[in-house]
Amino acid sequence: PGIVLDELLPLTVEVHIKDFVVRRHPHRMGFTIEGATPGTGRLDVPGLIERLGERADAVDGILELWTSPLADTETTVAEEARRAVAGIAYLKQLTGTADTPGRPEGRSLS
């Protein structure tokens, strides 16, 4: 990821943040990759935010969720809503944008 960031960071206007976990199957023949609440998976979100550095105010952050289907639609939607609230709070904490007035118009974590 470092090489990609080195090349693309100067051109970046939007960052999609989608955390994930990798689990090995019990029979050890393959893996499952699933979405995770930001900050609980393998994506180095603090490292990414740090790399944005001075460009952070010029870059929009988009939270993407990848919620696997649960027992029924209502349960899945509720879990996705929980992850959205937790993820936005986590990203705002990392970026120091929690209810910060004066954030440039159109630049937000959504």
Q: How would you sum up the global shape?
A: globular
How much is the average pLDDT?
A: 86
Helix tally? 3
Structural class: alpha+beta
| Beta-strand percentage range | 15-25%
State the share of residues found in helices, binned by percent. 25-40%
Q: Which labels suit this protein?
A:
alpha+beta; 110 residues
Describe this structure in words.
35% of the residues lie in helices and 16% in strands. The protein has helices at residues 2-8, 45-52, 73-95, and strands spanning 14-17, 20-24, 31-35, 60-63. Strand 2 and strand 3 (31-35) form a beta hairpin. It is globular.
Concise account of the structure shown:
With 110 residues, the chain is α+β, with helices and mostly antiparallel strands. It has helices at residues 2-8, 45-52, 73-95, and strands at residues 14-17, 20-24, 31-35, 60-63.
Reconstruct the topology from this structure:
Blueprint: H1 2-8, E1 14-17, E2 20-24, E3 31-35, H2 45-52, E4 60-63, H3 73-95
